[in-house]
Specification:
- This protein is of the alpha+beta class.
- It is built from six helices and 18 strands.
- The strands form four sheets. Strands 5, 6, 13, 14, 15, 16, 17 and 18 form an eight-stranded mixed β-sheet that branches. Strands 8-2-1-12 form a four-stranded parallel β-sheet.
- α1 runs parallel beside α3 (113-126).
- The two termini are 33 Å apart.
Length: 279
């Protein structure tokens, strides 16, 4: 027999999207089971810098407020985004976005992904309508007339009215649906890191379009720290990662044309391959 009644929802994936979906369903009195293979890190030190951030617009902030998550974010993990300056490094022009132009105090916020996950995970743990199964791995989905049944790797079965797939680009749920997917590489990598700036960022984001791809700086809570996202052709990315810190800092500073003075790495840069997927 299934281990739960079908008047519920199963969410596969315990990242930002899956956890937020679970909390929103819970606010509508709907029982939810979240399936996640790996428990996230919920603690880190002040010196542990993380460049994986999200630009959260005002609408998304409202959703996080709806589940009482926004007010639980640590002040050191997010900062307002008030302006954005974008230009063509070859001299093709510049555009300036300012929150004052739309009568708002900010355009949105830059928030650390891990902090959003921490808050939502702890909320789900405390929510009586949410069951977190972690570590847990899905094995098979079968459909009945009025509900679906999920079989886990340990042979446990759970039935629900619906299954939400929030399990990333290589979605297992998508593969079970036999949904077609178009995928191609951009032949680029995004180099991400946290950097120290010589000039305070004043809650302004910067982006320069270079011939090899754009480089952007997103403000963090510290007025002299920013997350860099440098997208460039794979060969260029590999060459940059082969540089020592002093050489990399110089290349990065020049790529931003000294808009924030000298830039200095605060952690080791990482490269993420850029891929287009359309399901």
């Amino acid at each position: 027999m299934p281990s739960s009644q079908p008047q519920s929802v199963i969410v596969i994936g315990g990242g930002m999207v899956g956890l937020l979906a679970a909390r929103l369903l819970s606010t509508q009195q709907i029982p939810v089971t979240v399936i996640e293979a790996n428990k996230p890190h919920l603690r880190w030190t002040k010196t542990d810098k993380d460049a994986r951030v999200s630009a959260v617009n005002l609408a998304s902030k409202n959703v996080l407020e709806k589940v009482s998550a926004w007010e639980l974010l640590s002040d050191s993990a997010f900062t307002p985004l008030r302006e954005m300056i974008v230009w063509d490094g070859a001299g093709g022009g510049e555009i300036h976005f300012d929150s004052a132009d739309i009568g708002e105090p900010e355009l949105g916020y830059i928030v650390e992904n891990r902090e959003i996950i921490r808050v939502l995970w702890q909320q789900c743990e405390a929510d009586e309508r949410i069951t977190l199964l972690c570590p847990s791995t899905p094995h098979k989905i079968s459909s009945e007339k009025d509900f679906v049944t999920l079989t886990l790797e340990n042979n446990k079965t759970i039935s629900a009215s619906a299954i939400i797939g929030a399990d990333g680009g290589h979605s297992w749920v998508r593969s079970q649906m036999d949904a077609g997917v178009i995928e191609r590489s951009y032949y680029q990598q995004a180099i991400v890191a946290v950097v120290k700036t010589e000039i305070a960022h004043h809650h302004i984001a910067y982006q320069n379009f270079l011939s090899t791809g754009p480089i952007g700086l997103l403000p963090l809570a510290d007025p002299y720290q920013m997350a860099v996202v440098w997208s460039c052709e794979t060969e260029k990315a590999e060459a940059l990662l082969a540089l020592d810190d002093i050489e990399f800092n110089l290349e990065m500073t020049n790529a931003l044309q000294m808009r924030l003075g000298e830039l200095t790495l605060l952690n080791k840069p990482k490269a993420i391959p850029l891929v287009m997927r359309h399901a």
